[in-house]
Amino acid sequence: MQTTKGNGSQLLQLLLKASKELEPVGNCFCYIVGMNQNEPDAVYVYEVWKDEAAHNDSLKLPAVRNLIEAAGPILDRHQLESFPNLTIYGGKASL
């Protein structure tokens, strides 16, 4: 996600908070947030959900709704990227 100038750290903090809120959500297998030092206004999120319905259900959670509301004003709408939905066949995620 690309933010408006100077707001990458703020978005990072919002998404890290969201990751804590999603810890008890059983259908969320992975929610990883990171940044590239060379792109201070970009934040990358890698999510793995049980299925599309589980992800859609997460968008109804109060914590996620609050995140979307808080992040909206600092996102650069001209730089939103869309990545494909993948079918995951295996791997490992833990921090």
Provide structural commentary:
The structure is a single chain. The chain is α+β, with helices and mostly antiparallel strands and 95 residues long. It has 3 helices and 2 strands, in the order αββαα. Helix 1 runs antiparallel to helix 3. It is globular. The mean pLDDT is 88.
* Structure summary, number of beta strands: 2
Helical residues, percent: 25-40%
Cα radius of gyration in angstroms: 13 Å
By CATH, the topology is Alpha-Beta Plaits
Report, as a whole number of angstroms, the end-to-end distance.
22 Å
Strand order of the largest sheet: 1-2
- Domain module count: 1
Specify the structural class. alpha+beta
Going by CATH, the architecture would be: 2-Layer Sandwich
Mean pLDDT: 88
Give a quick summary of the entry.
This protein has helices at 8-21, 52-58, 62-71; strands spanning 28-34, 44-49. By secondary structure, the chain is α+β, with helices and mostly antiparallel strands. The protein starts with 7 loop residues before the first helix and ends in a 24-residue tail after the last helix.
